[in-house]
């Protein structure tokens, strides 16, 4: 057992339950904090936690939950039943779509058979096709990044197993894979930097569209060349494979040959042999299962703790239920799902009676562009017309610029806030207030009883990449908690190491109690949480602007 786990267990065993304090305490902005309620949450969450039991079922029993797959449907059925068994009302899953094809990996094996016989470790990309049995071929490295590259290799790749990358340059690990925020780092995080951050190329619509456009030329090229399989090198090392999607999940789009990602150590060995002009051969077998019967084959899960005098208003919480397939979706985002489920379980277990209705939402399709939470918003909260600009046709909807006015629906004015957890196993250190100055003193007050558990920081900074953005983008308060990074980015995020063993029990217990307290206090405030100004509608494009000289 790691030392930090022992320290966390010791912390929980000795943490005061605040029983000597008054039931309500004054905090910044005279925000009331119900310390008697927090006592009960901490007692239940410390001594009778079920958060790791929930996570174990999601990961060890159900396993990966790729969007549209049987695994996600199984997870939807189980979480609905579990929430109902805990006493929540209206527990159910809702399909949405159309999404695309269901895909399940049944078998994959890769072996070098010349110049020596070696079992190699690789994982197929999601939605890649199978090989239709064991295929044996010569290994070739070809750089294919431009149309000129395609012309250079035309007619030269039939029957080969194609290496797509140069060798991965592994470096010694001189710092820990897993880290926690220091006090200095949290203090800096609380400060706003008015200088705009450098744009992230991964979320640049122009870059994405260019890559998609080339992919639509590369896929038929590989098929016409009759390439047996393609292999990319993982950017991880020590056996870690970062793997996401490969083939298209959209029905009737070509997917190319089987595509896999290999451990850096295995890939580099093969690559070095090819570079030395050795005759290298491999055997590859990939067996998958595609189904197209149900176009609405992905889902969200909902359940309520129904409120009293303000039951037509909502406080929401959640995380995304879908995952990638390389591991079991433990840190991304089984951890967030288990914490959200544990938060509502805690409130039911202590007999909490909310004024507003508390609704948990477990989202599908987050990994493909926040599809589940965006669908919920579109159907129930607010919507905009889809962009008809031709330049957007190859760009996912979440990357497109706003198009048309925002049309709100009745639920828009009824959601006080949505709280999300989706950054791995790390314990909560605070919360991103998303540039909403009105909530900062409120959140500061709500965090105060959890300073002894390391949660102290409210920052007005914005953060992205997960489902709270769907709410914030239409003017509904949506928040993501600050979490210790741990080894999320170095080891588990979208990898074969995203498994139960990488999740820290003490962190999960702490996060569950804080989330439970936040939603309980939001549910019982006299007023809904303050809102930022509504996002502006896009300016209409004039003919002159559309056709510059």
Helices and strands in order:
Blueprint lengths: L2 H12 L9 E2 L7 E2 H13 L3 H12 L7 H16 L3 E8 L5 E13 L3 E3 L1 E3 L10 E7 L5 H7 L6 E4 L19 H7 L15 H21 L3 E5 L24 E5 L1 H12 L5 E11 L6 E8 L4 E11 L9 H20 L6 E8 L7 H10 L1 E2 L23 E2 L6 E6 L7 E5 L7 H8 L9 E3 L8 H5 L5 E6 L4 H5 L12 H20 L18 H4 L3
Parallel strand pairs: 7-8, 8-9, 9-10, 13-14, 13-17, 17-20, 18-19
Antiparallel strand pairs: 1-2, 3-12, 4-5, 4-11, 6-10, 7-11, 12-14, 15-16, 18-20
Task: Report what the structure shows.
- Helix content is 31%, strand content 21%.
- It is of the alpha/beta class and 549 residues long.
- The protein has two domains: 22-99 and 295-382 and 414-524, Aminopeptidase; 102-191 and 200-291, 3-Layer(bba) Sandwich (Glucose Oxidase, domain 1), CATH 3.50.30.30.
- The strands form four sheets. An eight-stranded mixed β-sheet has the order 3-12-14-13-17-20-18-19, sandwiched between helices. It has an eight-stranded mixed β-sheet with strand order 5-4-11-7-8-9-10-6, covered by helices on one side.
- It starts with a helix and ends with a helix.
Keywords:
549 residues; alpha/beta; Aminopeptidase; Glucose Oxidase, domain 1; 2 domains; eight-stranded mixed β-sheet; 20 strands
């Amino acid at each position: 057992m790691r030392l930090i786990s022992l320290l966390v267990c010791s912390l929980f065993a000795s943490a005061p339950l605040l029983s000597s304090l008054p039931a309500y305490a004054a905090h910044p902005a005279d925000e009331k904090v119900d310390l008697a309620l927090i006592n009960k949450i901490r007692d239940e969450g410390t001594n009778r936690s079920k958060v790791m039991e929930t996570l174990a079922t999601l990961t060890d029993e159900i396993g990966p939950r790729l969007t549209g797959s049987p695994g996600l449907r199984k997870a939807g059925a189980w979480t609905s039943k579990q929430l109902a068994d805990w006493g929540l009302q209206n527990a159910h899953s809702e399909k949405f779509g159309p999404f695309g094809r269901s895909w399940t990996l049944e078998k994959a094996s890769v072996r070098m058979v010349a110049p020596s016989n070696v079992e190699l470790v690789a994982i197929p990309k999601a939605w890649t096709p199978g090989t239709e049995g064991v295929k044996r071929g010569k290994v070739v490295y070809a750089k294919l990044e431009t149309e000129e590259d395609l012309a250079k290799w035309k007619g030269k790749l039939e029957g080969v197993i194609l290496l797509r990358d140069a060798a991965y340059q592994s470096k010694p690990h001189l710092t820990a894979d897993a880290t926690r925020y220091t006090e200095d780092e949290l203090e800096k995080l609380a400060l706003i930097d008015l200088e705009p951050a450098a744009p992230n190329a991964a979320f640049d619509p122009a870059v994405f569209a260019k890559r998609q456009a080339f992919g639509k030329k590369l896929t038929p090229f590989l098929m016409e060349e009759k390439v047996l399989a393609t292999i990319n090198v993982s950017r991880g090392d020590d056996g870690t494979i970062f793997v996401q999607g490969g083939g298209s999940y959209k029905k009737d789009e070509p997917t190319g040959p089987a595509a896999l990602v290999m451990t850096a150590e295995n890939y580099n060995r093969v690559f070095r042999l090819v570079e030395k002009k050795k005759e290298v051969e491999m055997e590859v077998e990939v067996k998958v299962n595609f189904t197209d019967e149900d176009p609405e084959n992905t889902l969200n899960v909902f359940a309520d703790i129904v409120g009293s005098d303000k039951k037509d208003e909502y406080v929401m919480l959640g995380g995304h239920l879908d995952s990638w397939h390389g591991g079991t979706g433990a840190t991304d985002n089984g951890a967030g799902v288990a914490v959200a489920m544990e938060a509502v379980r805690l409130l039911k277990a202590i007999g909490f009676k909310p004024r507003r209705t508390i609704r948990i939402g477990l989202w599908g399709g987050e990994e493909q562009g926040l599809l589940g939470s965006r669908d919920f918003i579109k159907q129930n909260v607010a919507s905009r017309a889809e962009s008809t600009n031709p330049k957007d046709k190859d760009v996912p909807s979440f990357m497109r610029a706003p198009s048309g006015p925002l049309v709100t629906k009745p639920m828009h004015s009824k959601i006080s806030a949505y709280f999300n957890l989706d950054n791995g196993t790390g314990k909560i250190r605070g919360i991103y207030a998303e540039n909403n100055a009105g909530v900062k003193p409120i959140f500061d007050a709500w965090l105060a009883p959890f300073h002894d558990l390391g949660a102290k920081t409210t920052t007005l900074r914005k953060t992205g990449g997960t489902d709270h953005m769907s709410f914030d983008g239409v003017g509904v308060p949506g928040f993501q908690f600050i979490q210790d990074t741990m080894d999320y980015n170095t080891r588990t995020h979208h990898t074969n190491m995203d498994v139960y063993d990488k999740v820290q029990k003490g962190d999960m217990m702490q996060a569950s109690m804080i989330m439970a307290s936040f939603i309980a206090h939001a549910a019982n405030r006299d007023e809904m949480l303050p809102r930022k100004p509504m996002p502006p509608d896009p300016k209409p494009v004039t003919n002159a602007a559309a056709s510059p000289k």
